[in-house]
Amino acid sequence: MLATIGKPAGAIALAIALISFVLLALGASPAGVFSALYEGAFGNWIAFTDSLVKATPLVFTGLAISVAFSAALWNIGADGQLVIGAIAAGAVGPFLGGWPRPLAIALILIAGALGGAAWSGICGWLRARRDTNEVISTIMLNFVAAQILSWTVHGPLMEASRAYPQSMPIASSAEMYMFMPPTRLNLGMLLALILAIAMYLFLFRSEPGFQLRAMGKNRRAANFFRIPIASLTVWTMALSGALAGLGGAVQISAINHRLYEKVSPGWGFEAIAVALVARLNPLAIIVAAIFFGALDNGSQAMQRAEGVSPVLVQVIQAMVILILLAFDTSAWGNLRDAFSRTPTATSRTTEAHDV
Amino acid sequence: MLEAKSITRRFGRTVALDDVNFSARAGEIHALLGENGAGKTTLMNVFTGRIRPDSGVVSLDGKPLPLGSSDAALRAGIAAVHQSPMLFERFTWEENLALGGFGRDGGGLGLQKLDLEAVASRAAELARHLGFELPPPRVIIAERSVAERVRLEVLRALSFDPRVLILDEPTGVLAPSELTAFLDLLRRLRGEGRIVILITHKLAEARAVADRITVLRNGRLVAETTPAESDESQLARLMIGELMTPPEAQLHPVAKADTLLEIENLTYRNGGATILDGISLRLNAGEIAGIAGVDGNGQVELVEVLAGARRATSGSFRIPGNDSGSAMAAIPQDRDLDGLILDMQLWENLLLAEPVRAHMTRRGWLDVPGAMERCREMLSAFRIRATGPEALASSLSGGNRQRLEVARALTQNPRVIVAHNVTRGLDLNATADVHRILLEFAAAGGAVLLISSDLDELLAMTSRLFVISRGKIRATDPRDRSPEKLGLLMAGRWRD
Amino acid sequence: MFEQALEAFLTSTIAMATPILLAALGEFLVEESGIINIGIEGAMLSGAFFALSGVYFTGNIAVGLLCGMAAAIAINAMLGVLVINLAVNQVVAGTALDILAAGITGVFYRKLFGITGKAFIVTPLRPIAIGPLARIPLLGPMLFDQSPLVYFAFLMVPNIAWMIYRTRYGLRLRAAGERPEAADALGLGVYALRWQALIASGVLTGLAGAFLTVAYANTFVENISAGRGFVALAVVILGRRNPWGLAAASILFGAAMALQFGLQAVGTAIPYQLFLALPYALTLIVLAFFGGQARDPSALGVPYTRS
After folding, report:
1. Is there a domain that residue C134 lies in?
2. Alpha carbon of A244 to those of B469, B470, C92: distances in Å?
3. CB contacts, 8 Å: C168 with chain B
4. Prediction pTM value
5. Three-state secondary structure call for residue B418
6. What does the pLDDT read at residue A341?
7. What is the C-alpha separation between A347 and B10, in angstroms, rounded?
8. ipTM confidence
9. Mutation site for B-interface testing, chosen from A201, A223, A353 by largest number of B Cβ within 10 Å
10. CATH of B259-338+414-490, one of 3.40.960.10, 3.40.640.10, 3.40.50.300, 3.40.1180.10
């Protein structure tokens, strides 16, 4: 247990140390920066709840990454899938006025999930049928999604006054239930929690989850034991995209209430750090997401206090991933195999006769 | 003279080599004998620089050999032919040789033009000298037979003009007919004054060709002898430490022999090549039928088709009275890549078998405690050495991994077991265990299809024997199961 | 009038193809040795920023280019330690480096030049016209009036092709990507070969990034590379892992990017976002039809540890 927490914690500590050097090079004070970060993240009740709010999309995308990576499907497109989910929500939302609230919210969320699922499912299908590298396809769709977003807020979904690049607001009936105003705590956060538990049970206690993990750890053996690799690939990518898309829909329904030129500050990539710190375990993702969400939250204060760009948190994220990779190579079986493909039929004896 | 003193090497808790001394002289064929797991390959890897020993020294012709570097070993004049040829399958044979000793002129970065024709002509010279035939120009290795690949690797090793040539179980993939020619080749190399080290677990071969024999057992040197001084049973005793009784090859034909497996005209084509060509056979209850063949004649694909992992192009197979695939359990040849998921725990590996998993699943949810318990029972019933159902499959030794696969196959309660090279790489104990399990299974009314390249195993275990060559099978005459005849069939010479 | 537009389009195509081609050539070498470098985008971005900074602070273009190459090499070196010496997952490591590069360039950029990006402008690396050839109508400017980096990029194509297919070094490199255990057993030196490929790729990718800022845009904006590194990954596949094919595929994408601006200038009712999305969508579509991993080096992406 100590090792399980110790390694990610150690990685974060080391990242902080390295960042301090970078900050000194920039002429900023590490102490000032970190205290500003802390203040911004936990300094008062509003800040604290906002850290949790900022963690929510990271739970959704973190789960998306965890599901895909567990199957050795390298979904780098969670960001684009979240954006498409948001667009779907933003497109459906304005027209849900007059619907009973629970239904409207359910619909807006379903729209988001379906959008994300489709966006990711394409890449899954291309991998299964055309052997298309999903790293490249998902990354390409990230860029396309960003352009679709831009188009919708400048075009078809643009708000009535046509003064600002933003969409029409969603109907009030589609707005997520909020708790404890003036905080931004909302029901979507509860949904995230429930999904994390559900994904844990799915991956580790269900039969399809077992098939998914087996495929991720050894595609050849999974294929030999008749696990349906092709369809599992498509379904897994779709599920992954659905989770990310849900994150986008929750964001629109609870926080943004409409689409802007930019919806995601890079949650889809940050999610990779979240998922790795959590070692792909959905329950641990909750904790990891809160950590990174707090970091994001505090970064605004850091900018005000020390003039360091909030982009610095990206450096922290990246360093955490790199350090974790460097120091924890043995524990992550399938993460070591980037591209395990079923090889062509050449009878080759590859026995481990080494002793 | 190649001399090794006090070589010790551990892998984790296993001691692979324990204070081993070894010496081989110029102009001799020296057999390094031992069962699988004795440490022979590890010792070879020390000589070739692939691994560094924990302690000990090696010297060649009086000069100390730098250890742990393949490059140093090659430059000192030590070359090896590996158990499964270490060739680049997608490259042409000329390119493979160019990466050996032939392309190596002029040091530096090697940015000058590579002359593959010069490589080919030097290869032709060497091949002529050895009595080989080279493949046609510019064909890639993947298209060549396994036996030819072995020869090409020998050629590549010799391209370094080595003082020492080490061959690791080279005859395992050769058909009996090719064996004599190969042993003659070794004698020719000996005549050139080289040191030839033949690593093998086959007693007859060792005695046939070696001048001296070193026997390893469990990582220790147990004897240094000659064929004259030790006969086969003495060597066997040295290898395994006690007199071994052969498995009780008692096949009790069941009174009413139902047909358990019907394969009808099974054909598989892939990209223009016909890999399985109209295979038909029937397997009855209580019998163990064998398919003998050199690797690469369609065995892998046959097992995959029967396992349901690959779809046949035409033809069919069925288990009468059983629609789902649950009545057949397949044990693939490559246990680490196809049979097990090394990074998963043992109970999870158990669940890979569909029937077991189906049994442990209620409406989509896995009964994890139940699976672990079932796994625990299986581990103890089959005496598999592991710390428990939660151990990773990678923590098991090769022999125990194979026991696990056989155990898993039986846990499915199948009616038919298809096993491919099921005892390859196993030590004699594990081999005997697996054989015994299969015999008991057959005696209880099951049927076994044993696909193997090991004629000894097949002759001992099977009541009916087929031979496979280039995707076609042919029954053999039970009255004539001599190695020579079988060798001819395995080489495909039945079509005349 | 149309001729002028066509000429501009063709010239632009070659110019836009150049950073992609340079990056793709570098990635080609790396992948032949068995590594997939998802971090190529980050390397390009770092090259772009640090090359421009170098020129900005020293006024010397050569220094700038060197800085750009050094930055890209640094990113690749981090990848090298992780995936060669520590044998970790190459996709995750590469993605982390992309995030790192975006973060570092962003932080440094804003610290040095503020949010407004005050005058981070330099005198560009001007195109060099090759005498009378440049005056050939239509094709002249496209082929003979380009930045020196363009000439360099296209001249590298036959050089790299020759190196990979006609020398023993190239054969050794490919062996490392085919079957590293066999390569090491022959004493070919897989680790060293892979490191060499990463450093060579760093040089090329650094120049690719430098081109974007020093020769093309003459300034820096955050994420100026805009996914070109990823497009380069696709180009390696689409070009059938052959330097000539890489050149052709790069030109295809250069055309798509040039088309963007051309059509925007013409001004149609079609939303401009479509054009911006065009290169990426095209990459995906072409990859779907012509991609596939069957021609990959057999050991591509598989972590390898010398035993």
Report:
1. no
2. 53, 50, 18
3. 98-99, 103-104, 110, 112, 114
4. 0.89
5. strand
6. 34
7. 31
8. 0.88
9. A353
10. 3.40.50.300
